[in-house]
Write a structure and sequence with these properties.
417 residues; alpha/beta; TIM Barrel; 8-stranded parallel barrel; 11 strands
Amino acid sequence: MVNLLVNLYPVIPAKDEEEREQLRPIGRHSGRYSSVVHGMTDIVKAADSMGVWGVGCIEHHFHSEGYEVGPSPGVLNAYWAAITENVRVGALGYVMSTQNPFRVAEETAILSHLTQGRYFVGFARGFQDRWTDVIGQHLGACATHDGATAAEDQRNRDIWTEQVELVIDCWTKESIEHNTPLWQVPCPYEDGIKWWMSDSTARLGAKDEVDSGGVVRRVSVVPAPYENKIPQVFVAMAGSEESVKYAAHRGYSPLYFSSIERTAEFAKIYQKEAKKAGRNLSLGQNCAGVRWFAIGDTEKEAREKVLHHDADITKNFYSHFRKVAGRADSQDNSNAPLESWVDAFCQNPQNMVGTVSSIRDELVKAWKDNPLEYLCYIPHFAQQPKEDVIETIRLIQEEIKPALDELTQYESYEECA
């Protein structure tokens, strides 16, 4: 069975570019953000009622332009958990090149309890330098993108990997110690922590937290996750085989932001590397593909939706990153009307524009070669109205997913893990 995952990228809506400019910085528009954040709860409730597998949110900061306003995923997840019954909630995800891993471990463990286990967590490396470099400055982090140097990219990966592994250690180990240039636990590592209630910790805390001389040598991160189970971990990735191999060896679910063809290549690598780690998986098992959808009764209607819902962010946000990457589908056409950006959106291989039947046929063709376990739908709510997002979820869940389910015959990785 294919699991539908809806990941919300909140866009503060404007009727046109002129209004977005008049309301600058619209990302700080209190009234419109309030409407967006409460509209997301209606989408989450609708997804819960339709039997959707999961709903998620992102971590992005400083989006004054009003695109992808998602600075605090844990707060949203906690609220969504309180207003739903069955749908899983989570973040896709925490950008670990900027985070404090101990705080992430604590926050996500609490979220796993609030949801009673229907919680997942995603980890991302961070590609937006405006905020990754600012918030991650004390870690020495630089964003990873096509304009980054090889040294910057490796620094980002090294920080990300260490931080993720620290979160896992905090979840799974009664107490931890750690000594690298990035983190010392305890701090200072060599001397330990001497002015602490050592007698009480020696009697009541974790074993070996305190040595025989009353010095703190380890720390115990509390609480442990719900039922001591690690939340399902997704890893967002676009084009790195190294990231695919890393996820495969650790049993994490790769979230592919890539074309159907590239996703199929990655899925084969993932299956091969998972086998090396002792996990015999079917092709596509434990893997997720990311798609944006614009569904209409006709192709023309679907393109009209792109014009109103997706062209703005394509022109004024995504196009920048495509220029940096030297993408063939980028445009140096910032003064052009939004109509000229519809084709740019439609030509992106991650975007699915058309009728239910045409999109279903395209996905069925892809699933025959690579039956992914998860399909992630990202709407540009609230530039895309709430009602249209909910209807798109219904169409995917009821009209498209059943055809994909027939091609995904393996047991879900979550059930057999």
